[in-house]
Specification:
The chain is mostly helical and about 550 residues long. It is built from 18 helices and two strands. The protein has two domains: about 10-440 and about 510-545, no CATH class; about 440-510. The protein is globular, with a radius of gyration of 28 Å. This is Phosphate transporter.
Length: about 550
């Protein structure tokens, strides 16, 4: 029997290692292909080797964005079982790549968020190229480590830390815009708190208007179209503001020429975006209201039927979040690459740079590939390892992601989509604990902890008494008897302590929000910028040492 079990273990280990080697092989094949194409596209240009290597770094960064960041868009949908893992990956791959190519834009800021003053480099384009290469590689390496540890972190903060660290290494601390860095640090608190509050508020509203009602079906017919219409408004507004800003000039030009009733600005305003969203929301409301009235007779008066009504909207939400994410966060991979491309091609240092389609494609394909190869690891963490999700909870998280970005962008607050989504998951989980009045798990856990401390104190006292008796050179019969009793008591206390710890572990597993996962994620968030900065500075000094 043991030989058979050992054989099964070996077989599973072989399958796992074989799958891992296959994933690594595919990733390496992609990067080699990117390296070759870069040489073909820029051959003969001075410093073309740097551009080719930087393109590989950009491809590596894009794959890590796909592996880590995209989980926030589809994780809740997978955790709620609205989508299978395979379906989520396919949808996210298509919409992430589509967002990057269609709405990613042909001009990307080379210095994200104005982190450093490019004038600090003077005309030393070599140092600038080395700094951007270091930033790309450092951010990618940090994301890779975070993904391996199942910690969803901000890709934007990773590249921010990378650019900051390389900038300091190249030109000193004065090159950094510390006001911007302070605003970024504040987002570590702002993003998850706003996301959590909005997600919890939507879930509470759904519960009060539908779940807590005796006639859940009639309540669903009345309120589900309202919530889905709000979702449609939020996502269309979000998509216009964040995902279509680069193609909006073409849209506004067409509308202004052919529809004289409207006069659209070349850049989408909040009013224009929200008006567009309101029109779509009204159409969605009317269509869904009519559809639900026809389906009333086929629905059961229970929570599961209500959850089913949120499934399709949730799938749309995952797709739209992926599209907008691809449009925005592809810049985290190709922003520094754009700077390097421009510096190599022009021999100078500019604040913005035109991006050829093939460079944009590296980012888009890299994100999609990274998601397909390594995305499931983080998707499982976001979707199920923090708190248990169903369609209503996942819908609330998706709403929080869209609405928080809209609010933050208008207020000028630097927020992270990763922090918002994870904050939404936290908010939903903590709301569940708060609503469950009969749940006394937290008090049970405290009781277990106190019991463990008492057991430890008693065990320590018994051991001290035993050691004191054993140290005596001469012992009476009563003392020998007491030693025997102490050994027995210590064994019993060890067993009791073991049972208490086991019970505590079981109670912790039943918490709605897993505290250990929270601690790991928060720690990763706090050290992302400094870790990427230190890594980037080290890489810069290494590259500089090799080149001089």
């Amino acid at each position: 029997m043991e030989i058979k079990d050992l054989h099964q273990i070996e077989k599973q280990a072989y399958k796992k290692s074989h799958a891992e080697l296959t994933r690594i092989g595919i990733a390496l094949f992609f990067m080699v292909g990117v390296l070759g194409y870069s040489f073909l596209a820029s051959g003969g240009v001075p410093n073309s080797l740097f551009l080719a290597i930087a393109t590989v770094f950009g491809a590596y960064m894009a794959m890590n964005i796909g592996a880590n960041d995209v989980a926030n868009n589809v994780g809740p949908a997978v955790g709620s079982r609205a989508l299978t893992m395979g379906g989520a990956i396919i949808i996210a791959m298509i919409f992430e790549a589509g967002g990057a190519i269609i709405a990613g834009g042909d001009v990307v800021s080379t210095i994200k968020k104005g982190i450093i003053d490019i004038n600090g480099f003077g005309q030393d384009s070599d140092a600038f190229i080395w700094a951007m290469m270091s930033a790309l590689l450092a951010a990618a390496l940090w994301l890779n480590m975070a993904t391996f540890a199942r910690a969803p972190v901000s890709t934007t903060h990773s590249i921010v830390g990378g650019v900051m660290g390389a900038g300091i290494a190249a030109a000193g601390f004065d090159i950094v815009d510390w006001g911007t860095m302070g605003a970024i640090a504040s987002s570590w608190v702002i993003s998850p708190v706003i996301g959590g509050v909005i997600a919890a508020s939507f879930l509470l509203a759904i519960k009060k208007t539908i779940i807590f009602r005796e006639d859940k079906i009639s309540a669903s017919v009345k309120w589900v179209p309202v919530y889905v219409a709000i979702m449609a408004w939020a996502f269309v507004t979000y998509l216009v503001l964040k995902g279509m800003k680069h193609i909006w000039p073409a849209i506004s030009s067409f509308v202004n020429q052919h529809i004289s009733v409207f006069e659209l600005a070349s850049k989408p305003t909040l009013l224009q975006a929200s008006t567009t969203g309101l029109i779509i929301a009204l159409i969605v409301y009317l269509l869904l209201k009519s559809s639900l009235r026809k389906r009333m007779s086929s629905l059961s008066n229970d929570r599961d039927s209500v959850n089913v009504l949120f499934t399709i909207p949730l799938i749309f939400a995952a797709a739209l979040l992926s599209f907008a994410h691809g449009a925005n966060d592809v810049a985290n991979a190709i922003g520094p690459l754009a700077a390097i491309y421009d510096a190599v091609m022009t021999g100078g240092i500019n604040a913005t740079a035109g991006i050829p389609l093939w460079v944009m494609a590296v980012g888009a394909v890299g994100i999609a590939l990274g998601l397909a190869l390594y995305g499931p690891r983080l998707i499982r963490t976001v979707g199920g390892e923090i708190t248990e999700l169903d369609q209503m909870r996942a819908f609330s998280i998706a709403m929080a992601a869209a609405i928080t970005v809209i609010i933050a962008s208008q207020l000028g607050l630097p927020v992270s989509s990763t922090h918002i989504a994870i904050g939404g998951v936290f908010g939903v989980g903590f709301l569940r604990e708060w609503l469950d009045k009969s749940n006394r798990l937290q008090s049970h856990i405290e009781d277990d902890k106190n019991e463990i401390q008492e057991e430890k104190r008693l065990l320590s006292a018994l051991r001290s008494e035993l050691n004191m008796l054993l140290d005596k050179k001469t012992k009476t019969a009563q003392q020998y008897q007491r030693i025997t009793e102490l050994y027995s008591s210590i064994d019993r206390e060890k067993e009791s302590l073991k049972k208490a710890k086991k019970h505590l572990k079981k109670e912790k597993k039943n918490l709605y929000v897993k505290r250990d996962v929270i601690k790991k994620i928060l720690t990763a968030w706090l050290i992302t910028v400094p870790a990427a900065a230190v890594l980037s500075a080290s890489l810069f000094y290494m590259i500089k040492g090799l080149m001089t």
